[in-house]
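task queued by scheduler; priority normal; single chain, no ligands, no partner chains; default sampling; output format set to structure tokens
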Amino acid sequence: MSGKGQTARAADPAQPDEINFGWLVRLRWSMAAGQLLTILGVRYLLGLPLPLQPLLVIVGIEAASNLAASVLGRRRPARQGWMAALMALDVVLCTGLLFFTGGPSNPFSFLYLVQIALAATTLRGTLTWALTALALAGSAVLFGWHRPLPVTGSHEQYMNLHLQGMWVAFGVAAAFIVYFLLRVRRALAQREDELARSRLVAARQERLASLATLAAGAAHELSTPLGTIAVVMRELQRRASLIDAEPTVMEDLRLVREQVDRCRGILERMSTDAGETVGEGTTAMPVAELLAGVIGELPDIVPVNTTYANGEAALRLRVPRRALGQALSGLVKNAQEATAALSPAGPSRATPAAAAVSLHVWANGTGLTFEVRDHGAGMGAAVLERVGEPFFSTKATGRGMGLGVFLARTTVERLGGRLLLESSSRGTTARLELPARLIEPAGAAA
């Protein structure tokens, strides 16, 4: 996998011009179909002798131009100039249709307003005014040059037909405008939501980078004094052994040395958790192997029952192993502590299997899901909304930094997945979902 493919990136949200262009193409198909049905209905249902050949040619030009526009829209990013050209062509074609069907006396003559309304919604001001001027020019031409609509019967019958046609034209124009504007507004709202999610992911990445800098600085500053203390402790142990110091003194020295080594290990893990995993390469491993490493490093305060829905243990994931392992480890450890807090055995002893943490894994068409469920007291809505913020924790002071869920969510979002949290009085459930593209068939090469 290439370096660019190592971290998942959210798909770029569609640009407004692309959204508008797509809906304009769809609307023009509807317009072409509506014009064809209207022409055939007036000709064969009302019996008016319309010139079918030029009218069908105009509708054919509209359909052909729309087909070309749809092909072009799939190959290149849409531009406002394309939309303006299509709308200008529609104005010209509308003028042609009206020329052969009575000109300004045609009740459908105010359909020019549809194009003007769409232009005002989707185009820049200069292009909108240019299209408006073109529509006015086309309408003005029809006053002096058009073919009269061939009608039979009295003037009163003609006026009734004209008024009925105006009502139909009004309904058609209103339907097109409302449909297009509502769909465009919905698409733009969806794009705004995508942009908001992208900004949220970017903000989390910035926070992660800040944590990496903080961790690196802390590790650098503390490594020197801890190294000095380790050297001094080795010397003190050596001197104590030469003078046959009391066993309790030797035990205390050994304990201090172990705690110094532990502090150095904590600093290394803190640096890793906060930032080094951002650039970690991907490796392929079975799901069972990943979870075995996660559970093997957890404290034995509450048992963890791991189950698979249908052979997911053999599936291989191509992921940054350390980063994903730490994300799962943080979720399971939180579940253990939440369950242990309500256990009659107390948080320092293993609880019965009935109160164990559940780790269930299943796969479907969209990807792989790890579900971690505890038997704790749960969280209220206000707390659940804030879980995942850096340094926000419900644990007692000194029991946690409030980074576990934040790092888990940041890791899974970089991989293109998501982390979902649900909570009730019976416990909390965390679902870590990974996309299907990270799954490899069992037995695939690493």
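post-processing summary
- The CA atoms of residues 7 and 214 lie 22 Å apart.
- The chain is about 60% helix and 10% strand.
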